[in-house]
Predict the structure.
Amino acid sequence: MLSVAAPMAAALLLDRLLGEPHRLHPLVGFGNAAKLLEKTLNVGRSRLLRGLLAWALLVLPLPLALFWLLAQLPAPAAAALSVAVLYFTLGRQSLLEHTRPIGAALLVGDLPQARALASRIVSRELRDADEAAVTRAAAESLLENGHDAVFGALFWFAVGGAPAALAFRLANTLDAMWGYRNPRFERFGKVAARADDVLGFVPARLTALAYALAGHTRLALRCWRTQAPQWDSPNAGPVMAAGAGALAIRLGGAATYHGQLEKRPTLGDGTTPAAADIARAAQLMDRAIVLWLLLALPC
């Protein structure tokens, strides 16, 4: 029997070679379906129950159908389909394609271009941001989404195969779409937000540990222990605190969202982030991926 590391490595290789499909990506179709269902159900009373119903209708059928299909297929075909599904749940290459140009623009002194590129991947306002602020935005996005788009899917694949990885990615997508604390989604999106917290709890901490082991370990563990509890998100806190500590840079801090300045806690410790730290964050993620694959070999 092949180690679970083999299909993981195969899916990661496909992601490296093919990147994110620009046409007919399954998650794009899923997102369109989620928008339509939300417009239909997020009305009137009982929005919490309506949000639960919408979440169940979107997250459960595809993984269950995939589980049934894999059981019907011959082993080689089932293995190939599992790798293909895992590939579609991964986003390592997409993360690099979105963050590398930011670092490249900063390195040649094109701060306006770097701001524009970073604004495509984060929701904070960067109109007047300096190099350090743009770097923080890119590095934080890369470290946090390393869990969402890579490690979380790999963890659930190891636990329950392609159906579990798919369920995690669908739930994570719904949290990104509905998990907001505003009048529109406060109740309707609560199930999506809590489900993502639960599904991401263990893999987020394993991601944080991998970041720590792949960088400045003692500093990363100290930042994780002391800073993560101050962060709003129970999963993003450990991941980003450990990642910032592993890189020995300072992330977090105040940022402006929708015209309002939010005083966020500091993450990490060390130097003020500079353009080259975006590439260092990507390298940290890749070293952590290698650690995961090595640990998966006996499984």
In short: The CA atoms of residues 215 and 246 lie 4 Å apart. The longest strand covers residues 250-252.
